[in-house]
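[Discussion] Sanity-checking designs against the backbone

I'm trying to build intuition for which residues belong where. Below is a structure token string of 156 positions. I'd appreciate it if someone posts a full sequence so I can compare it with mine line by line.
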């Protein structure tokens, strides 16, 4: 039986509790665990360090036996929190090839799949900056406010 997810969980330094939290988390929370760092160019362009990975993004492997290899993200597994990249495969004992599962922390995104306008909107909304470079608005001169002068009182 799966344990209930604790929504008021406070960060613990105990590894077993961190692992339990991640394992028992609902899918909408596990989605945030699949954020992948952006390369320097994208980091500057979007003014953010990481983005949630999606199918169609291009990623480069930073660690492990497949270091420096890159390809498109073919599958994202929310349950196991793994990312699968096209062209990076392992050979099983019986000779079958299968995609190699990567931890998101071992990847770096080099190109984003922006076909979905909602994703583009979310990147803009979360940081509060527009991605398209618009001409800077001209500053209008500040007009001095009129001082509240007492009105002339006419005596009757």
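Best answer:
Here's mine. Compare freely.
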């Amino acid at each position: 039986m799966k344990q209930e997810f604790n929504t008021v969980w406070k960060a613990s330094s105990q590894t077993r509790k961190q692992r339990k939290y991640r394992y028992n988390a609902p899918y909408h929370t596990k989605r945030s665990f699949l954020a992948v760092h952006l390369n320097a160019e994208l980091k500057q362009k979007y003014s953010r360090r990481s983005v949630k990975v999606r199918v169609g993004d291009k990623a480069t492997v930073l660690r492990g036996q497949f270091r420096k290899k890159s390809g498109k993200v073919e599958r994202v597994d929310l349950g196991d929190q793994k990312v699968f990249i096209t062209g990076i495969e392992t050979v099983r004992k019986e000779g079958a090839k299968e995609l190699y599962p990567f931890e998101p922390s071992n990847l770096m995104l080099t190109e984003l799949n922006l076909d979905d306008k909602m994703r583009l909107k979310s990147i803009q909304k979360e940081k509060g900056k527009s991605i398209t470079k618009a001409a800077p608005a001209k500053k209008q001169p500040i007009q001095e406010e009129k001082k509240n002068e007492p009105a002339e009182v006419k005596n009757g």
